[in-house]
């Protein structure tokens, strides 16, 4: 599949880029240099330009092979990268995937991720014929919990010692949303 672009009102979702016209590398390096991002997204590090360039290549390689779909969430006016959303562990046969998302530090708390994620879920359940999307986060990540709630995910359980935060093993919460679930009426 080719990368899909999604219009989410004040945000425009497109493939991550690093070319002569658009360079997402600085925004990725800034995001992953942020202490809060590193705290919860420790499985992926982007400490320098080379790592961010590799990340973009990896994200874009997922599209044609149909195992990862990813979007840079950009401000529709400034084109600044405000967030990122990745559907991974895609199983087309069963219509399932897991979502990972993050916000650039300058754009946190503005509703970017819930707005963009709801647009991605609409596409995934509609055009991509997915049935179940899973969302996991550390129990202490209250911002991620709010995203799950705003996007109509249902809490399914707790995964014990699933992750490490602040050098300590911590539980993660497991949420899911089905294509048959009602669309969230409003983002709070």
From TrEMBL:
Keywords: Transferase. One of its GO terms (cellular component) is cytoplasm. The keyword Transferase applies. PANTHER family: ACETYLTRANSFERASE, RIBOSOMAL-PROTEIN-SERINE ACETYLTRANSFERASE. It comes from Lentzea atacamensis. The keyword Transferase applies. One of its GO terms (molecular function) is protein N-terminal-serine acetyltransferase activity. This is RimJ/RimL family protein N-acetyltransferase. Residues 14-180 form the N-acetyltransferase domain. PROSITE patterns: GNAT (PS51186). Pfam families: Acetyltransf_3.
